Amino acid sequence: MHTVVRAAREVMKACRRAFADMRWNCSSIELAPNYLLDLERGTRESAFVYALSAAAISHAIARACTSGDLPGCSCGPVPGEPPGPGNRWGGCADNLSYGLLMGAKFSDAPMKVKKTGSQANKLMRLHNSEALRASLEMKCKCHGVSGSCSIRTCWKGLQELRDVAADLKTRYLSATKVVHRPMGTRKHLVPKDLDIRPVKDSELVYLQSSPDFCMKNEKVGSHGTQDRQCNKTSHGSDSCDLMCCGRGYNPYTDRVVERCHCKYHWCCYVTCRRCERTVERYVCK
């Protein structure tokens, strides 16, 4: 259970970081498991959160195996493919297969046994949970005289959750709206506008369009953007024009204390002074 609690905390941090520059900033995830409607309905935001949660649980279980925190599992198997010239397999690989197995059992079980809620919502959450549950990448450590890296010991490790969240955010922005439609003897999720092709396993899907999140409206799970900080010079989603929904913004000054005039001393330390400067910031009306 400690592993799952840790995964939940990581999901909160990764989600807030990924959406810090958007109107919907993932703040309602902190109310888990008593979500507002932005996450209870079949929206893009719900798709992102369920996919990230499933990936995080699989990650946490796989890494708990590697660190020896879970009985009954250990390091992942040595990969079958060659590691490449100058490399050798070693270390303790993240146990992805066990993490995927147990993560799926834990995060998908409520949807498979839950008697309330629509079948379409259950199918949507199960699909999104599989979209990016986990992936491995090669990680290496150098060995050699004076750090020459003549030999590298490599292992397969999981992506950092912040990278998974960034990948899922890209899929969130291009998510496919689906409908629950009969196909043959059963109902399936098919693209609403492009129902000539099946839904891809790798894409996030949603059933209901989201509000614009400009104004506070608890009925739809919107916190609004009043008093949110915006970027006056940006042309992206954090710009004052987009973030403030055309309502305008108020400037204020803030004092920032930072390290400055740093000097390196032989050998081997750095000393810095502390400098204070005034910056102008902006918040939405």
Automatic annotation (TrEMBL):
GO MF annotation list: cytokine activity; frizzled binding
Role played: Ligand for members of the frizzled family of seven transmembrane receptors. Probable developmental protein. May be a signaling molecule which affects the development of discrete regions of tissues. Is likely to signal over only few cell diameters.
Key word tRNA processing present: no
Identification of the protein by name: Protein Wnt
Source organism phylogeny: Eukaryota, Metazoa, Chordata, Craniata, Vertebrata
Family from the record: Belongs to the Wnt family.
GO cellular component terms given for this protein: extracellular space
GO biological process, one term: neuron differentiation
Species of origin: Cervus elaphus hippelaphus (European red deer)
Keywords, sorted A to Z: Developmental protein, Disulfide bond, Extracellular matrix, Glycoprotein, Lipoprotein, Secreted, Signal, Wnt signaling pathway
Record localization: Secreted, Extracellular space, Extracellular matrix
Pfam families (alphabetical): wnt
Chief place of localization: secreted
Residues passing through the membrane, by range: none
PANTHER family in alphabetical order: PROTEIN WNT-11, WNT RELATED
UniProt keyword annotation of Amino-acid biosynthesis present: no
InterPro entries: Wnt, Wnt_C, Wnt_CS
